Amino acid sequence: xxxxxxxxxxxAGAVLAVYYAVPVVAVxxxxxxxxxxxxxxxxxxxxxxxNAEALVLLxxxxxxxxxxxxxxxxxxxxxxxxxxxxxxxxxxxxxxGASFKRAGHLIAEHPGPGTKILLIGHLDTVFEPSSPFxxxxxxxxxxxxxPGVIDMKGGDVVMLFGLRALKDxxxxxxxxxxxxxxxxxxxxxxxxxxxxxxxxxAAAGASAAIGFEDGxxxxxxxxxxxxxATEWKLTTTGYPGHASQIFHGDIGxxxxxxxxxxxxxxxxxxxxxxxxxxxxxxxxxxxxxxADSTGTxxxxxxxxxxxxxxxxxxxxxxxxxxxxxxxxxRTMREIVSHHLPKTGGxxxxxxxxxxxxxxxxxxxxxxMYDQASRDLGLGAVTAVDPSKAGAxxxxxxxxxxxxxxxxxxxxxxxxHSEKETADLRMLPSQxxxxxxxxxxxxxxxxxxx
Length: 449
What we know:
The chain is of the alpha+beta class.
């Protein structure tokens, strides 16, 4: 999962009350009630029967370095998962990533007469071969640390062994499933349209999608909305005259004052918008300015007695819905268009990861997951505050699939750091909840994409 961002707003409580109208039960049930069917009981028994194997597989794939740019390592993880999927009756294929400068993606398809369900995982981690964090280590009988142990190799294992339990219980044969394991979720290839084409195509005809990210790392929560990850670049220009003549009619205010005006207006007009985050990350201004193509480094030079002729700022923006994204871009463009004397400016956006809005369909699938959890005696599940949910691949199909949920993978803490740790006690329970959700989704009628 890509890095999450957190921000508080005065009106956030009211907005959450509208977005997340899901019933909450504070106390977990001790034992599964009679509402668990015989088939579902068989599924849960199968999960327990294979839990030791699941732990072995988790350790095996965590010990394969698959930092996004370690293309061979990403393919090696796919090579381990592929025969596991094929043994369950899936047809697998590899989508080569040369066109978007990454390893590629593993696609697994299981056609059937039931409702089509899209399952989403990823093969890569943020830890490249140069990282000192390389191995799966058991800290005690209930926790383990390792690169990608929860983000998201643990989620991949939850998905795989949920499918295995469905197979053992005789339920998989008629299910219509497509699983996509992207090889570049942590650092998506470019062009992005090529990098996510396979995922978007796999979503065609799906009535529901499940992402197996770790989410907030809390088994009491799941994700039904994610904010976008948008990059922006703002450039201003001015007349590079002698500093003693600044503000004169033929000289103007200079590029840095124009940039200051724009950023100040951004803050004044947009900083109170619920769930909107925008942040300048790099600023370069002076007589000569050079920013590299990534927007993460550059150089600038100038003199105190020369008015700055150019300034460049690059930044990040997060929005909750396509409507909020479009509105924010319009507002920012409007602010940029009104220039100080003798200055100019322009802004460009690289939309990157789109937002995933909290729709009624997403609330419905959360309700189903919540009910499955209660039926298993595992307690209620509520929606994660979207300000705590970073961008992820599931957002690319959120506007085309009626019901989408994410963040139901392996629980733990400190993903994207060398302290990344999994709660191994949660592996069987997360797998059971995911398996029951898949089974119940496959039995739905009247859900159309």
